[in-house]
What does this fold into?
Amino acid sequence: MPFRDGPAIPADLLPPFVVSAPKTPVAPFVLCSPHSGRTYPESFIEQSRLSPLSLRKSEDCFVDELFGPVADIGVPLIAARFPRAFLDVNREPYELDPELFLGPLPDFANTQSVRVAGGLGTIARIVADGEEIYRGRLQLSDGIARIEHLYVPFHTALRELIEATRKRFGYAILIDCHSMPSASMAPSGGPRPDIVLGDRFGASADSRITRYLKDALTALDYEVHMNRPYAGGYITEHYGRPSRNVHAVQIEINRGLYLDELTLRPTAGFDELQRDLLSLAAPLFNDLPALLEHRAAAE
It folds into this structure.
């Protein structure tokens, strides 16, 4: 199954992620920002038919920085350095698009997923607004190298953070941090809430967690929806195992709250949103563990 002799990964993508971790965690949380990577190798830009700015349309711009102060007060945050347009770790490891690669794909590749059909597999064929990324098809070895040298280490590190948290506190709560286009930028149009919380319709996390998050964000005057249009991707689905004391919730933040979506530069709203997220951290760290421990004791 492994292809160890693929092409080298661009040096500027190594290490593939950054972990901000306290010496002593204060709460059973792990923060993950898989789509905020903004290191675009020159070789990737040369492969692409798009401008560097257009390539960034799939990026969850500055989400790692929005949640950085929360991590600073005592929980780990893992953030990818590579861009989502280069490799998407919120997919199965081998969701590969037959239209993107030269020659046949290996039998273990998932070529039939809805995400692959939409051009947004592990190696995306398009950016978020539907524009084709590449000038031509890729060598399979190129895609496999990205998976083995970037995807696998990222998930290994994330899994270790979750397991260390679970062992330390008895359970772990993963918050998978994302951003979504505003109504004016969304391909489907229509109104968009400020925040969407996804728990796979209750499958990936105790309902008390998502209810607490929704109520706390609503109290700060944010419009919060549950599971629609985003119920959580591969990370939420894969790691969220409440029966094994691991809960996972995806949070999608409307980019219109903090970002100029044409220039991809932070607006004045960035600081306010960052402060609001930080203001939630202390009560979140104190109250949610107590809720879950009380439930466990009752059971």
